[in-house]
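Need FAD/NAD(P)-binding domain-containing protein's 3D structure for a figure. Predict it.
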Amino acid sequence: TGQPHEVKDEASGKVYTAKDIILAPGSIPFVPPGVTVDEKTVYTSDGALELNSVPEWVAIIGSGYIGLEFSDVYTALGSEVTFIEALPNIMPTFDREIAKMAERLLIRDRPIDYRTGVFASEVTPGIPGVKPVTIKMIDANTKEHV
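Structure prediction for FAD/NAD(P)-binding domain-containing protein:
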């Protein structure tokens, strides 16, 4: 409509006025069954924002918009990325045309590998510098370990 809009912060009482307002309250990390998070070698999306160093390689379980954002950040910082996606294609909840465009612009020319149709059935933390993280994967169709 071109008219200003207002949003009131209930806690402070402050009113924000703007032509366009985007509400982006964040998300609560989802940890699937079988995944053990220690925030030392296996992180939630919150913990992954607080790393002290850039990993050489990182596996991202799930290839939705948050996973895509992290792959963009980590590859820009020099990490190699592997997506593990249980559904048949990456970015499964995206509109197909948008997913194709995102793949072309954000994935194709970067050090990103992706495994689709595989479910991370168990993720066990490692010991930094001693033992790597263990990821057990199951084929989403046949239910066989891969």
